[in-house]
Amino acid sequence: MNNLEPVKIAVRSLYDLQKVRIELSNRVAAHREMYGESVVLETIRNSAMLARDGEVLLAKAVGVAVAGVDIAEWLQAVRGVGPVMAGVLISEVGDPARFENVGKLWAYCGLAVERTCDTCKRPDHSKSVDNDGVEVIKWNIMDKDGVLYCAACNDGKSKFRGHAPRRSKGSKSHWHVQFRGKLLGVLAPSILRARGDDNTYAQHYYQHRERLLGKRCGLSPGEHKKTLRDADAKTTQEALQDNGCTNGHMHRKALRYMIKMFMQDFLVQWRTIRKLTVRPPYKEEYLGKVHHEAK
């Protein structure tokens, strides 16, 4: 086994045991409410407690396994990243040679930007495989005076808009769904909660949110209503800020930006340690656009 395999085994075992423990606890709570206490429920409850003890042991095993990986020292210096989350990052990303640039890593994590038509909701391109097994990309874009319109609508009005990847019923997700959940649902809040002036990635979050406040949002009030999470506002109009966006929407945008900056540095550091070529992101290499630095 290479030095990444023990990390993967320990992390997967930890979350497998955690899933079993949660299922046992939920079963106890549901049956106790319906049928009351019993010897069987007491046995299941004790089993769940034993599973929790096993989680503690596996978490320690993850920390030991992570310590043997070359990127561990850099991860330990990042505020908000503990041994278990470091194990998740190492085990899910795997060999950094898999990702030639950070754009491919963002796409794997579900952090890349997708473009869909405002009218028909079709993506800007589709992929298929021909009879020879070669992947064919069909673009759904019509360039008119430097503006990209939807070729399927062909009305000269329907434009493309970028957004985070979304799951759709009946189609397979082309990114790691569980990994994105860990990054945005566990790692991002952990980084924000970590105190210290040297928390660079938390600064990325707050500075990007300030930039969003001064930028007009592309969503309409009706589209914001679908994801409204402002408990103090009874209507969408009450929740909208001066820039036409809600606090919840700006919060999620800033979280994604913060994690993208973290994953970019993570890949650059790991490829540098492995003495691999480090390519800048697509926007920097081809379009000359550079991401803001945390100050």
Q: Could you walk me through the main structural features you see in this protein, from its secondary elements to its overall organization?
A:
The chain is mainly alpha-helical and 295 residues long. The chain folds into three domains: 1-68; 71-113 and 171-295, no CATH class; 125-162, no CATH class. 53% of the residues lie in helices and 9% in strands. The strands form three sheets. The protein has a two-stranded antiparallel sheet with strand order 1-6. Strand 2 and strand 3 (135-139) form a beta hairpin. Helix 1 packs antiparallel against helix 2 (39-67) and helix 6 (177-193) packs across helix 10. The longest helix has 31 residues, at 5-35.
**Spatial order of strands in the largest sheet:** 1-6
- Total number of beta strands: 6
| Average of the residue pLDDT scores | 86
| CA(first)-CA(last) distance | 42 Å
Kindly give the count of domains.
Answer: 3
Which stretches of 5+ consecutive residues score pLDDT under 50? none
Q: Approximately what portion of the residues adopt beta-strand conformation?
A: 5-15%
What gross morphology would you assign? globular
Helix content: 40-55%
Helix/strand class: mainly alpha
Reading the helices and strands in chain order gives HHHHHEEEEEEHHHHHH
Radius of gyration, taken over Cα atoms and rounded to an integer in Å: 23 Å
Number of helices: 11
How would you characterize the largest beta sheet?
Answer: 2 strands, antiparallel
